[in-house]
Design goal:
single chain, 241 residues, alpha+beta
Length: 241
């Protein structure tokens, strides 16, 4: 399965204009089980209350059900279970965390692997967040290397407020479609964007933002950031510096 993702990544890198029309065929029971082995098994339960242990005990049956629903076009993205967690040291207030069902989290992660194979070829080298084989420490090392070896007069630090919860769905769909033309993958992403959340028994519709806590969220957020910030900075702003 990894070989097939490698072939997709190679094709995406060789042809920056190609749109992938057939990707959903990768979502087989074997691919889902392979994805399952990469996931965190200690995650909390979603709105259906099923634990990762329970899901694992019914693995064969559940992945077959998911694949059958995808083939028939009947898969429904359940709302996430939303909880509020502290923002972190030195920050005031809380931020929303969405907890998908185990089955939905597995499917999201599988689709995220496919999207990563396609869009990693497009992401700029200066992008480090939520990317395979990269982390904030690598970003700091690159910054230090740049400061030590080049002439630097200013360093700008900025934070995008409520970024994950403010992403525009219409623009995000257009960005995904820049490379993806597979209707099943596009429909799945739309379902996740519209799934909403359940908090204290109240359904909260999703009109903007990416699925909080879902494995698909980081790659979709990176894609949006790539078009709205990274490319703008590299092509418009950087030449003026």
């Amino acid at each position: 399965m990894s070989t097939k993702l490698g072939q997709i990544a190679k094709k995406a890198k060789l042809d920056r204009e190609v749109r992938f029309t057939s990707l959903a065929h990768l979502l087989t029971p074997a691919f889902l089980k392979e994805t399952w082995r990469m996931m965190n098994r200690d995650a909390a339960s979603g709105v259906d209350g099923q634990s990762t242990k329970q899901f694992a005990s019914e693995m064969e049956k559940r992945v077959e059900e998911i694949c059958a629903q995808l083939k028939e076009g009947t898969y429904r993205a359940p709302p996430v279970r939303r909880v509020e967690i502290p923002k972190g040291p030195g920050k005031v207030g809380t931020r929303p965390l969405g907890i998908p069902t185990v089955a939905d989290r597995l499917l999201q992660r599988a689709v995220a692997r496919i999207l990563e194979a396609v869009f990693e070829a497009d992401f700029l080298d200066c992008s480090y967040g939520f990317r395979p084989g990269r982390n904030p420490h690598h970003a700091l090392q690159a910054l230090r290397r740049h400061i030590v070896t080049k002439k630097v007069s200013h360093v700008l630090e900025a934070d995008i407020r409520s970024y994950f919860t403010r992403i525009d769905h219409q623009w995000l769909r257009r960005m995904v479609a820049h490379r993806i033309a597979d209707p099943i993958i596009l429909q799945l992403i739309s379902k996740w964007l519209k799934a909403g959340a359940l908090q204290d028994g109240i359904f909260l519709p999703a009109r903007e933002g990416t699925p909080q806590g879902g494995p698909i969220s980081p790659v979709l957020s990176n894609l949006y950031l790539h078009f709205t910030l990274d490319l703008w900075f590299a092509k418009k702003f950087k030449p003026l510096c």
